[in-house]
Design goal:
Length: about 130
């Protein structure tokens, strides 16, 4: 009985590790896709192209949030931090943009990106910032 419990526990741990790895690979793929989109449209490295995407108001607020804000947080762009802080309206729950993502930048996503950039202990994707 004890042996079965050990095998079940080990299997669950391995399953959780595999799920985490798949999640990280999926996020990494999404980051690479968004960087490629930004670099097709703007010159420079990943960080510069994403910042240009964010600052270009001809892009929709939804795409500025999805492509630039989220990705800048994932690559932990120190260069984008003051820009994001300037766009942030002290709304960590995103109440002011709820249901209005086609007309305003998502404050909740900006909040998360700022936290991601400032964090040091979570495995994000700063190596993709090239």
């Amino acid at each position: 009985m004890k042996r079965k419990l050990i095998i079940i526990a080990a299997s669950l741990v391995l399953l959780m590790i595999a799920a985490f790895a798949v999640l990280m690979l999926s996020i990494r793929h999404g980051v690479k896709e968004r960087i490629a989109m930004a670099q097709e449209k703007y010159q420079g490295n990943a960080e510069d192209a994403l910042i240009a995407w964010l600052l270009d108001t001809t892009n929709s607020p939804r795409s500025r949030t999805d492509v630039a804000v989220w990705t800048l947080g994932q690559i932990q762009s120190k260069k984008a931090l003051p820009i994001l802080q300037g766009l942030y309206k002290s709304d960590p729950e995103g109440i002011t943009c709820h249901g209005r993502h086609d007309s305003v930048l998502c404050q909740y996503e900006i909040y998360k990106a700022i936290r991601a950039i400032e964090s040091t202990g979570w495995p994000l994707h700063p190596k993709l910032n090239k």
